[in-house]
Write a structure and sequence with these properties.
The chain is mainly α and 505 residues long. It contains 29 helices and no strands. The N and C termini lie far apart (75 Å). Residues 490-505 have a biased composition (Polar residues).
Length: 505
Amino acid sequence: MNYTFVPSPEHKTLVEAAIKLWNEDDVRGLVSRFYFPLILSKRMSEWQKIENKVVEKVSKLPLAKPLKEKLLCFIRPVGLQILTWVDFHDNRFSFVTMLPDEFFWTPQGTIDKKKTAEALIKDESLDITKRYKLACIYCLKSDVDGLWNNIPEDQKKSFYSEKDPGDVRQQGLVILWTYDIKKEVTKLDNMIAKRWRKCTPYQYAFEYAALGGNKAATEHFLQKLTPKEREESLVRTAGYVAKKRCGSVSNRTDFPKEHYTDVLCFLLSQMNEEQQAKVFRSYPYEVLKCFLDWPWQSFFMEMAKRMWTFLPEESYDCLLRVITSKAKVVDGYKDYNYQKLFGEFWQQSPISYKRYVINECTDGSLLSNLFEVEDRENITLIVKDATLTEKEELIFSDIGEDICTRLIFRGNWNLVRFFVGECISSKEKIIELREEFKERNSRYYSKEEFAEKEDTWNKFFQLLDDLIQKDDKKRSMEEENSSPAKRLHSLTSEQLSTSKEIFKG
C-alpha cells in the first residue's frame, strides 16, 4: 500500500479556494488578534466565530449549491491548520509574535511547516534565538549552523552547559543540535539514558521527534540511523506514535495530535509488509483511528481491509462510535462524509463484528449518535442485521426508550414512527410499548410535571394508536384475502373453467 496521499484535482481546487478565503484581510485580522483561552471548549467557541465568518463568505460565492457544500467541508480543516500552527508556535513557545506573511501549503491542504519555518527564519525582525529554535526543531541544518554563529555569546548559555546537558532548559532537539554543532554529542548519553532510555543520540532524536509528532525531524533523523538502530526503533516507534495519537496525555512540546498521522504514514512507508503487520497486530484500533484524521479519511477503508485479522470486536464497536461522534458535527462544518464511511465500514465487516455491535446496542451510545444526526440509512443497516427479538429488546431497553423520549420532545414524529416501525412488527408489542411508557411516566413525573407535558405524550400515544389501527386493517385484509370465497373470486376465468372441468370429472 502506498502511504502517500495524492489529492485529486477537485481536492486541490477546493483546498486552494478554502485557503484563499482564510487569507482575506478581514479574516486574517481576526486570526491575528485571536487569543488562546486556557479552557479548550472556550477556545473553540471563540474560534467558531471566525470560522462562521468564512462560512458566510462561502454562502455569497456564485457557485452551485453542490459545489458550495463540498467547499464547506474544507473550511474547518484548513482553518484548524492555522489555529493549531499559531497555538504551537506562538502560545507554547513564543516563537513568533504575529502571523507569517505567508503560510506555505501542501496540495493536501495542510500547512507545510518546514517551508513556513524556512521563510520565518529569514525574517531578521524576529529574535535570533527564536529563529535558531525553529531551525533546530525543523532540522534546517544550514540555518542551524549559520544562526548559532551569530547568537551573542551571553545568550548561548541558555542552550549549552559544559558541566551537564541535563541543566539546559530547552526542547530535546534544540539541545541535540547545539551539542552536535559543538561536536559534543557524546556528552548527551547520560541525559538521554535518564530522560528516555539507553540508546544512541540519533536514535533518541528520531524517537523523540516521532513521538512529538514532528515529521520533518523524524524524516531527518531516520536517515542518520544505522541498519541496526533502524531495526530496533522503526516498528516500535510507529506503534507508539499511533498509540500516542489516540491517548489523552501529551507533553507541552508535542505537535498537535492531528500531525501524528502524517508521521505514522511516513514510518509505515519505510517498512516492509512483515514490519507493518507487527504494527497492525499490536495497535489495530489506534492505527485505524489515525486514519479518521483529515485529510487521511479516504485511506480508512483500505486500511480496514488489512486490519480485520487483528482488530478485536470491541475495538470495531469503538471505531463505529468515533465515526458517529465525528458525524455529529454541525452541518456545514464537517470535514468528511462520515455517515457514508460508517455504512461502508459496517457493510464490509465480518458478521461476527455486526453480531457483537448489535448485542452492545442496548448498552451503548452508538444508536443514540445515529439518531442525533438522523441517519436513517445506517440505523436501517444495523436493524436489518438484527433478529426480531433483538429489535424488540432494543426499543424496550433504557437506551431505546431514551431515544424515543428525546425524539418525542423534539417533535421529530417521523423519526419516532420510523424507530417504532423498524423495531416492532406486531400490534401486541405496540400496545406493550404504549403501556410501558405510561408506566414509565408515572414513575418519572409527578402529576404536575406530567400535566405540563401531557399534550406531547398524547401525540405519542396517538401515534402508537394509529400504528395499532394500521396493523388491524392489515390483518383484516390478509384474513379477507385468505378466505375460500376470496380465493375463488380471485381466480381468473381460465383457472375457473379448468376448475369446473376438474369437478365434472
